Structure formats: structure tokens, C-alpha cells
## 1
Amino acid sequence: LRIDYYRDDTVALEAFKAHEFDWRTENTAKVWAKSYNGLAIETGLINKIEIAHDEPTGLSAFVFNTRRTLFSDRRVREALALVFDYEWTNKNLFFGAYTRTRSYFSNSELASRGLPSEAELALLEPYRGRIAEEVFSTEFIPPETDGSGKNRSSLRTASKLLRAAGWTVTDGKLVHSETGALFEFEFLMQSGGAFERIIQPFARNLERLGIVVNIRLVDTAQYQNRIDNFDFDMLWGGFGQSLSPGNEQRDFWGSAAADVPGSRNLIGIRDPVVDELIEAVIAAPDREALIAASRALDRVLLWGHYVVPLWHLRSYRIAYWDMFGRPEITARYDHGFPSTWWVDPARVQALERGETKLDK
């Protein structure tokens, strides 16, 4: 087994298509849909497959920095989440490849679903009145649109929430009715990334509500320094999860980590209820208790509207030259390469002869 490293992903893809190496995974929907072309793929010399998996995908989201007064109000955060048009984004930018994220523990049995179970209610009932009432009565489902890009219903609902939080439109700009402050914030990004095309439509929709969004591109060193010191308004954040959550949840959402430079509590959550539910996750005596505690924590975090949930991929995208065999049954949490795949001598010989599936 030999592993080649490429500095540039575009160069790596072209090298793969030229058979400089044999096997590749793809992480970008646009590249998967548009760039895997050429005679080798058309004739079946290269196989392009997707393998479904049950691997936890965690949370990818636009993160609010709740340390900022602007985002301290739950209604404001909910309003901005309504403005993100996931259906349009998935259809027009990702070729329908992704699944909307509805949980901090997405694509796993730890994710909340439906209404709380008896075991979850036993954990949540002591906090009634201290957490959102929706936790008990409503399944969390992100807002949905028809994908046309005209999400007027969501914008109207968002506008009502903003008015209830004290924001009104004056001369086309959203301002606070008491302080007169303009609703303006900065979206922090690393320069050279591919995400600006995703954030721009979100910013345009926010501008329809009178909100001013400044997309700030900085180099990697400055970006890391700013997030370590929580010097941002909003950014794109990712929180990986396993099937056995534990102490790391304190660093993700715990009050003690909220003011520790470099912690993963980018959101700045300081909620005693969240702290106690984290401890319930850590102290869970068995699998059933762990699932119930994780789902209860998930519900409280979701209805806190701390983030704008984005999407996840429920399969591995794999391209490989037609020289391998693999099991009919794939492991739930892994694609199995290279441990369970094998080199098929007959296929290797066919490749060396230049035979294609059309010849066969």
C-alpha cells in the first residue's frame, strides 16, 4: 500500500483520472457531480460509487457568538435561522446530495426524534419553566421551503420575531427601537475557502430584512487566533460526535468552557440546565441511559437556537480504478478500504490490456 500526498486537490483529481493512483474519496458535492468525467469513467475503467453508512456526522452549522449582545436573544437567533434557505442551497449548489441536519448528534441513535420518551421526560421535567416549552411538545424540524429561492413565508415569520425582540425597519435598515443601533454583524471566514458561495445567498436574504452582513476573509493564522479568543460574530463551525459522547461535551457546550480561550464552546453557552444534562450524559450507567440523556441534551440545545443547522452526508463517495473486489456487505461505520477490499488479479490484467466494460 502506497499513499501519495497532493498539495492541490484539483491536481490530485486529475492525477487520479490519469491513473497516477487507484482509489479516492470525494468530499465536495460540486466536484462529485461535475468533475468526474472522461473516457475512463464513461467506459467503466473507473467506478464511481456511494456507500451508505451509519457513522455519526455530528453538527455542521452557522454558529452564533452569544457573547455578543446582538445574539443574546433567542428570538433573534431563531429569526436568522429561518432566513437560511437550505432547500434552495441543496438544489442549486449541491445537486441534492445532502441531508438537512436536525440534531447535534446527527445520523446516530443519539439524535432526538419525535416527542420525548419517558426516560427523556424523567430528565427534562425538573427543568420545566427553565427551558423552552417546545422541548416537551414539539419535534425540532428546521424550517423548510419549496427550493425556489422565494422563501417569503419564512421571512415574514422572521420579521415578526425580530419585531417582538425590539427590532424595526427604518429607511430600509433594521434598527433597535430603543437604542437605535443598526443590526449589523460580521461573518468570519478563512480566505481561500469554498464557502463564500454558500454564505452569500444567506447574506442576501438577511439584507431583505434590513440586516447588514459583512463577510470578513482572513488568513488561517488570524482566523485561528480570532476563534481562540472568541473574536467573531458568526462563523461556520463543526462539532464531531462519536457513538459514546462523554467529557468532550463539557468543552462543546459547558459553562466552564465558555470563557476559556481556545475551548470548543464557540457559541458561549452558559446554561446550568445544559451543564446538568452534560453530566447526565457523562454519568450514564448503561447504553439506554446514555441514549436518553444525549437526546434530552440534544432537545435543549436545538430549541435554544444557538446555531443554524446545515447538512450532512450519509454515504461515502468513492471513486476507484476497476481493479478491486469488495464484500457485498459493508460495515455500518466504515467503507472498509483497504482492510476488507482486495486486488483482483483478473481485473488488473484487464486494465493493463486496456479492456473496458464495453469490450466485455
## 2
Amino acid sequence: FKGDAASFAGLLNEPFVMLGADGARLDKTATTEMVAGVRCDVKDGWTLDEPRLSKIDADIYVLSYRSTVDGTCTLDGRTEKAPSPVRAATVWVRSAETWRAAFHGENPIFDPRTGEAPPAETAKKKEASSQDAEAALEARPGAPAADPATAAMVAIETAVWEGWKARDAKVLEELTAGDLAFVDIFGNVTSGKAETLRFWTGHSCEVKSVRVADGTRTSLSSTVAILTFKGILEGTCGGQQFPLIHGTSVYTKDGDAWRLAFTLNHLVRRQG
């Protein structure tokens, strides 16, 4: 709230990654600079509750929670009402006796059945659809080939999306870790493999195709890595065309195989 960049410099892990309001990847330096430019006017009584903890390994955990706040924040000359309530998730890494954040993301909580967009969405331009994103990706110059580990994670991420599309619990069971957790674009959260797979296989969306693009890996250790990516879907859900999804997933290595342990899907709140 106070734009205290010095506190964040000590709080964030190296490496650190998160997605900005325009979908751009931010590292520790960029995030600290962004925090330094924020000024909020927040009333007393803000809350953090509904905590859920998911284990990635002995020294890496994901903490998700619900937050409520009444106020406004100014960044880059733009003042907006702070989204509330939101579902947040932070990946925490332990080094010796100190915990530091390696990723943070949050989504406004809202019910898509009401037809109301979350507060941060109301003033922006029309959300780009997945088909718009597909065209933009095809039109740009070729990106360098991914390294083998990143390519493997993108392949697994794609297979998970295909399993979700087909409501195939067996495929999803094989590709995911035991303490699987998920935060969706509406602020819904699941924790534990059984709850998450029930949620993934119980959807009523009509999905024609899925594609994972722009996969970029950030390694936290030899056996844990964060993958950021774009999810491009063709089809409809609740009668609405799919938007472009900006995803962040945590992968853990089990023997020679990478498995999905946590994922959070975002909507871009501000056009770049």
C-alpha cells in the first residue's frame, strides 16, 4: 500500500517472477520498481483470510488466500479502485530459516453467471479473444527454440489442457503432483489432487482446441520450476468466447518426469 520498495527487496526471492497487469513477465528488479511507483489510499479493516497451503517440496510451498480491501491505488498516473475481494497465491521458498516469495498472482473473485466483470476489468478496452491472440502470435517473427526442460513443461501443460478439454481424469492424474492446487480466472480455488481433478473434469465448456504458447521457465531448484505461458482456446464457456489466458504453473520433477503441482490462470487487466 505504501510503495515500500525496500521491504520488497528483502522479501522477494532471486529468482522471482510474476505477471504484470498487461501480462508482461516481471522479475525481482521490475517488481520492486513497480512497487516503488504504487501509492494506495486504503481504509482500515482490510483482511486476509481463507488460507490454503499446498506443498511443492520440503522447502517450497504455495499459500493461497482471500483478501478484501476498500480503497484506491495509483500506478503510472492511473488511479483505480482496488479490486475486492481477490484470490491471491504466493509461492514461498525457504533458504535456511528465511522464507521469500518466488511468485505472486491474484484474481478478482466474481461469479461469471451474473455477467458482471471484476472491478479491474470494467474500464479497460475489449478483452482480446484467444483467436485474436493466435493471429498475433502467428504474425510475429519466430521466437528462439525452447530449451529441453521448457519444451517438456510446455508439452505437459498442453497435455493437461487437452485432458481438461476431454474431461479425462486418468490423463490428468498421471500428469499432476499429489498436492495439486489451482486458482482460476474467477477467483475459485481448489487444493489437493482429488478436489482439483473433480473441478477440472466437471466443467460444461465446449472446447474445440487448446494451445499453449510463449512458455518461459524460471528454475527455483533442480527439481522445481515456474512456467509462464499463454493459453489459447477455441470454443465457448457459458455461451462466451474464451479470452486469452495468461498462465503461471509450478512444476516439480519426479524421477525423470515433470509433473504439474500448481497453476494460476489470469486475465490481462490492462491493455499493453
## 3
Amino acid sequence: MTMWVGAGVWINITYTMLKYSRHTLPNGLRVLLHSDTTTPLVTLNLLYQVGSRDESPARTGFAHLFEHLMFGGTQRYPDFDRVVDSLAGESNALTNNDYTDYYMTLPAEGLDTALALEADRMWGYRRGLDSGGTPTQQQRKSLEVQKKVVTEEYHQRYLNQPYGDVWMLLRPLCYRRHPYRWCPIGADIRHVQEATHDEVHDFFDRYYTPDNAILSIAGNIDDAAALQLVQQHFAAIPPARSPLPPPARRHYPPEPALRKPRHLSVVRDVPNAAFYMAWVMPSRHHRHFYACDALSDVLSTGHSSVLYQRMVQDEALLTEVNAYITGDLDRGLFVVQGKLRPGVDFARPEAIVREEIDKLSAHPVAAHELEKVANRYENTFLFSQYRPSDRAMALCYYEMLGDVALINHEPDHYRRLTPQALQEAAARYLAPHKCCTLEILTPSHA
């Protein structure tokens, strides 16, 4: 593979296809194994196909709450973190709109215990209930503790730091019906604070099942031996009583087409005024997804990009500018954001963004610009799989998308893009009447 790196320089990079094996247990758990004997470590990644979009509007924040609860311990392993520490490992998790992901990296000899831990968490609340359905004392305590932890996180990350509530403002500005209108922390923290054990258990019972999960193991493993361990620990866990369709076939309230632009201005105690211009773009599986991603690169990636040159370098309107996509499974957002220099008004930079998008809608992008985008993505893609832990996560993610082979072939989608495809996507999705603009004013701007 020949890659352009800038200033007329090209380099040759050899990319080796990632080898993996794929298996499905009778209970529906999908298993992906990747052997890398160059490392003494192994990463276990367990992705549950549940995110904030799967929550009830009256009880938001549950997927994120469960990210915390899953570290609260069970009857068999009361202190999850202590066991991981004893294995010289580390573990963490993340929750977003579409899925919840748990990952653990440790020396390869600890794989058996790590699988036992994850399988026990998957049993979790069901095994912790007695025959009468009464929660254990540990479960009651864990729920109350984690509700307080999430509440504190809500205040620290979203309310008490500059720009912390941007997405809590931008999402409901862009979405009125689709559950993407709230953040994973929840639309209202009272939903978590008032959650009952029965509600939490019902959420767990519906989504934390083997047939709604994807397990990958990457690192110093023998595939056959690793699969045997997975079967030993997970095979007995029953699937959901009412199986869920895969994420691509789940139905959520469709977002109505925007017929006129939306605008919101708020005053916050921030160092610089900032604007966020957002458009609802196509879903992850749509043919225009890659074109929208490429458009965001053309607009702002690197100091040679048009938005950076015009607004940061030439006119000195902004301290920084960035364009990006959220990459959601359903119709996500295409966002352009910038932070204003003191004394600058919003009108000029927002007009420049509109001008440059209009140009992309009216004229095909230059071929060499598209080549730079494809090379840049291929470079990022290559380094994003440098560590076995990255590969473990990627295997789960692409399996969730329904095409695990993309772990080797996704750059091909960018190579196949044409200037006309970018022009079509810009005209179709980034029209002025489809724009939602959020302005964060400093007290001096107000």
C-alpha cells in the first residue's frame, strides 16, 4: 500500500489482514478469536447491543447506570476489581447511544478467571435473586451506591465544567422524536435517582443476555483452547425469553425531516464563545455515510483544510475549528464547531461555514483532496488496530454492524468514493434549512 503523508512525500506500508475465527454458541453468544503470540497479554471484550437509544423516554440513563452496576460485584465475586487486580489486569467500560462495552486486559494465563468473571456478571441480577424475586442486600446496596456515583458524575462532567452540557443542549435541538435526543447520562438525572430495583432488573433481563452480546478475545491465545473456555463458562447461560432483533433491524421513532433551521443561544461561564452547527446525516449502513465522513475531513482536518485556513489563519476569527460525524448506527450528526476569539461575533464564522458547504454542494471536490482523505483514513485505520485490545474492540464493533469482515476492508469504502458522491451528500444532507445551530455565549457576549 502506498500512502501520501504530505509535502509530496509518499511511503510504502504493508498491511497484513487480521486473522480471526468466528463462532456462535447455542445460546446465541457470538465469539470472535484473534491469536497474537507476540504479546504476553490477552484482551477480553464483551459488547452488549444496548445503549441509551434502547431506553424508555421516562427512564433514561439506565444503560449508563448498568455500566457502573456491572462492577458492583456478585455473590460469587463480591469485589470485581480486586479479582482483576490480583490477575495484574485492568478493566473498564463505556456506554454510548448504541452499545455498552466492557473490556479487560491481563496476562494470558489469567484468561480462565477473566471469562469466569464476565460470565458471572452476565448471570448477574438473575442469579442474585432468590426464588421469591427479592433482591439481595448486596444488590440493594450496589444500586443505591451507583445511583449516587452517576449523580455525582452528572454534576461534575456535565454541569460543573466549561462546555460540559453542550450535548445535553445540542441533541434535543437536533432530535425531537428519536431517542438520540438524550445523552447516555440521561435526559433527566431524576430518572436514575428514582430507579427501582424492579425497573433495573427488568432492563438487565431484557438486554444483558448472551444472544444480545458479542465476545471477542485477542492476544496470546490458542483458538481451540480459548473457545473451550468460553463454552465452559458461557454455554449454560440461557438466552433471552423474548429475543431482540439485531441492532440494524430495531425500530425507533423516525426523526421527521427538518423544514426550517433551528437555533439556540445560551449563556455559560466559558473561556470562549463557541458555536455548533449540526445536521442529521444518514445511518451507519447508508451508502452516503462514508461520503459524509469524508466531507468532514475535507472541511477541517489539518492546517491545510479550508475552514482552518480561512477562520483560524487568514481572518483570525477562531482559536480552533473542527468538523466531524458522530458515527451512530442510526441517523447521527454531522457537526462543525468553533471557538471564537475575543470580540468576534457569530455571524461571520457561521457564514463562512455555510459558504464552504455551499461550494461542496455545487462543485465536486478536487481529486487530490479526496485522495488525501482516503490516505488519512487508511493511516488512522491502520494505527487504530495496533494493539490487541484495539483489535478486540474492533472485532466486536464490526460484528455488531453485521459485517465483521469490515475489520480488514473498511478503507476500501473510502477508496471507492468519488468527488460526485461527496457533492451529492453535501447537497442532500447539509442544506441550510436542515441546520441546527447552538451558540454558547460568554457573559460578555450576552
